[in-house]
Amino acid sequence: MNTTDHRGRPIVAVTGIGLVTPLGFGVEANWAALLAGRSGIRRITRFPTDHLRTTIAGTVDLPEEAGGEVLTSSDRVRLMAQRAAEEALAQSGLPSPFPGPLMLGMPPVELEWPGRFRLAAETGEDAPSYKALTEAAAGRDDLYRTTAFAGIGEQLAARFGTRGAPIAISTACATGASAIQLGVEAIQRGETEAAIAIGADGTVQPEALIRFSLLSALSTRNEDPTGASRPFEKSRGGFVMSEGAACLVLESLAHATARGATILGVLRGCGEKSDSFHRTRSNPDGGAVIRAMRNAIEDAGLTPADISYVNAHGTGTPENDKMETFGMRAVFGNDAPPISSNKSMIGHTLSASGAIEAAFSLLAIRDQMLPPTINHVEPDPAITLDVVPNVARPAKVVNVLSNSFGFGGQNVCLVLSGAPA
């Protein structure tokens, strides 16, 4: 078996997958729900939603919150990432301590409103000054541990015994795919034989919800939670915030085969391109989106005709869906492969989305099934793609392009393929 690619680099295999989404815990539970076209979007009960324009989200109910305690986003990210990693590592069969680094994609961390209110109360002032808040926070190790960006990565690295400093990265909605790309490239450079790549997000909390709402980015179809996320559909009105985590255990193919591991698929190519156009909008010329897709396909040593299926970024915002359609036509012409959006069922898991969708892409190859884009009631005449509407479909799936397009024009695309013969 050839263990190097067309550029002489080590082929990167996937030997473990772990998943946590609003559809449930574990790979098989999630995949079954996805193929059944089941939505995980529901009304928010974690915090009061009175007077909010959007009152729905894709929330994950963690066992640690069963007693009524509401965790911070940081704790939620850590626990979901940990659960996904445990599943992926168990499947991979790699020992502990883990013989490689951790690449963690996660959201920016900040002190959330309840914590700020408690800190303000400690000052004893009705309208505390910044100086008073700073003094109240002095020496508070608990605040530091909660808000340190690298803290989650350090805790996970300690738990799984990974080598070297853990890498924690945030590239907006492309974050999960960026974490995978970092792991792939470290193996391709010969720096390690294995890596853990995780994308995780637990940002369904009041401040984040309000911020996205002020950007007019969120769906307000509150009366119909399961029908609210409508990528590529004429009546789409924004994305639905969500949370979750996915982990891929990556290994050089030579390392994985030498130890007799089951190969779940390979990360064949990675492509990225940023347009530096606007804090939230993509450049209307679509250049960065198109280049990221082409870069991934070229990096994989393939042509557009070799792509069987595209796992869409597919957020359900008017701008993203039209931009992705434009990019697909530019890259594939009139022979575009089927494309579908998992976000129609799980919502937009933000920093986790690129990793979750890469995992689903591998499962599509494994089972030769295309997950659907649900809630496709009325086609948009401006979107002339096969979006696999409403019902999963058997298909020959050899190579999958997984798209992740982030705010600020941060775009990462991955090409995933089946295990080498």
UniProtKB/TrEMBL annotation:
Keywords: Transferase
Protein name: 3-oxoacyl-[acyl-carrier-protein] synthase II
GO biological process, one term: fatty acid biosynthetic process
Species this protein is from: Falsiroseomonas stagni DSM 19981
Keyword Repeat on entry: no
The protein's annotated pathway: Lipid metabolism; fatty acid biosynthesis
Protein family according to the UniProt entry: Belongs to the thiolase-like superfamily. Beta-ketoacyl-ACP synthases family.
InterPro entries the UniProt entry points to: Beta-ketoacyl_synthase, Ketoacyl_synth_C, Ketoacyl_synth_N, PKS_Beta-ketoAc_synthase_dom, Thiolase-like
